[in-house]
Each structure stands twice: as structure tokens, then as C-alpha cells.
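Quick one: examine this chain and its C-alpha cells and tell me how the chain folds. Here goes:
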Amino acid sequence: MELNVSMINSDKSGSPDIQFDQVTKRYGDVVALDNVSLSVERGEFFSFLGPSGCGKTTSLRLIAGFEQPTQGNVQIGGVSVIGVPPHRRPVNMVFQHYALFPHMNVSDNIGYGLRQRSPKPPKSETYRQVDELLEMVQMSGYGKRRIWELSGGQQQRVALARALINKPTVLLLDEPLAALDRKLRRDMQIELQTLQRDVGITFILVTHDQEEALSMSDRICIMREGCVVQMGSPRDLYDQPSNLYVADFVGKSNFITGSVTNINGRYVTVEDANGRTFVGAPSASASGFSVGVAASIAIRPELIVVSSHNSCAVDMATDVALNGRIKNRIFLGEHTEYLIETDGLGDILVLSPKHIESKRGAFEPGEAVALGWKNAAALALEDS
């Protein structure tokens, strides 16, 4: 099947760049994607996030054309691409290991896509566009370098430039930062965001790294076992997870498990196995609670206050007050992470900001402390 790319470009006025309509993908008896419907708007930085085997890479391969759906429809710019081979789709991909050609220099790698066109553009035009892309990815003057002479971050920029030179409607990123060290990965996250804003095309990222997805994305699709669990902005997913799975996967949380004993307009009350009750506000994304069902109270560690055991500040400032003992301390620069052993609730994780630590001083392992939180800081979540 031949895809008329002009059809896609002419229909950009109202259609999403990517649309899945009840898409299922099976490999024999294994369901990799299960009746997924979603859309990616023009110019979005969209991420698929989830553990291995959740269906995120399968989704990317369906967009790229490396796989075809068992059922359902995939559209790019409002046009179905079922049966359309990868080289006829207005998308390009940056792979985890970049897949650069070692026998070519940087300029030849970047210009490879232009040289595959029929008819080929004049050499002068190819050189001009390659130089533009080198400048865009901040590698002017590197055109004659060999691939093995570049650092990991530079190779990643070359792979991006090569993918962008054909001006795709959508750029697909298959864990492109996984091979980089932590500091370089953070730098490249910023560069990717800046590049995406500059070129103005849709970026779709696949990653299992929550920090990567949260820091770069306009919207994130959380996946599990081939299904979409929740989609939303990074802030929505972090502050208003739809269930326990999302809260546990995105960021760090403390969970108190039990069953629902009371529901009112503002809070849900959960009783734990020891008969203690805790309350939390139901997430805006939750589907609803009923008395007797399994549920959890979730508290983010940065929303917990910790104080010296002989101080009454926690009791005065919080709705929940507990006693505990410092089990472990990890200094992380901008904050200190404490693991606090409590009676009846097990270990509680607390993040204490540096500006608080500088005033109060750090707690030592084995030291008795008091900790607590406001009811409004806790979320009541379904255990699904």
C-alpha cells in the first residue's frame, strides 16, 4: 500500500498526529496490547511509561510500522496507516543504541536519509541541510569526525539530527538516554525538551524511567500488561494517581493498607489490620469507593514532617502524629532521605529538604523522632 504523505500533511488542521482506535496486538497466545484507544496531539511531547512487558515498545513499533495490529486501527494525521511499511510513514525513530553507521562520518550519517530519496536533492542542498542540523544539535564543526571519536552524548545528538533531517511528522524515541550516565542523561533531557520546542514536531518517548518521563513530557501514558492505566500531565499523575499501581510506580509513596470504614464528602477513612484508622482525600481520578472494599492511604515522603522526639511541633502542626526511630539516613544533596521505623506501621520514608536540615541539623541512625502529616496531604486509593 502506498501512503500519500500529502494527505497526512493536508489534514493537520484538526486530527491528532497519532490515533489508536481499539488496537490489540497478539503474539500467539500473548496479548501485548489489549484494546487500546488513545491520541497524541500535534506538537506534544508524549511518553509511554511502564515496566518491561507492559506494551509501551509494542505501541511505538505499531506507530513506526515495524508491527501491524491484530485488531483496530492506527492513524497518523487522520490517515490510516494499516499495511503501510515503515519507509512510507512520515515518522522517524531514534533507537536506544543509536544505530549509527560506523563506516560513515558525522555528516554522512546525518545526510543518509536525504540520499535515499528519489529523486535525490542536489549535493549542495544536502550539505546545507546537514550543516543546519549540526548547528541545531550544537555540533557545528563535527561533520568530519568519525562515530567512534564521539562521546555518548554526541552520538545521541547525531542520531537525533539524522532522524530529524527528513522533517518527520512524528519523532519516535526508544529509550534514547538509557546508555548515558546520570549527569549526561539529565543534560540531554533538557536538550531534548529545547529541541522539541524549537522544531515544533511531535515527540513520542518510550521509557521505564519515571524521572525521565516526568521531567520531559507534556502528557504520560502509564501502561500495565498491555492496557492503559492512566493518562495525564506529569503533575496530574504524581498528585492525583488513579489507583495504587500508579501511585507506587510514579514517584515514592508510603502506603497504609486496609479497608474502607467511612466515606464523607471530603475524606475516605481506612482501617488497617491493627484497628487504627487513617483518612485521605479521594484522588480526583479514582472511580469511587464503597465501605468494606480494600483501599490504601498514600502519603508522599516529602509531605511528612519529622521532628525531635521531645518536640511538640509535630503534634501541633499535623493531624497524624507517630513516634519512631531513625533506621537509615541517606544524604542526597538537595534533601536527606530517612527511613523511620514505627510501631504498627512498619517503615516510613521521609524526605527532609536541605533548608530544614541546615536549621535543625540531621538526625542520626537510632535517634528517636516524632513524625506526622496533615490529612489533606494523604490520598485514599483503590487497590486495583
User: Anything to note?
Assistant: The first strand starts at residue 18 and ends at 27. The chain has two domains: 5-237, 244-384. The two ends are 42 Å apart (CA to CA). The CA atoms of residues 188 and 194 lie 10 Å apart.
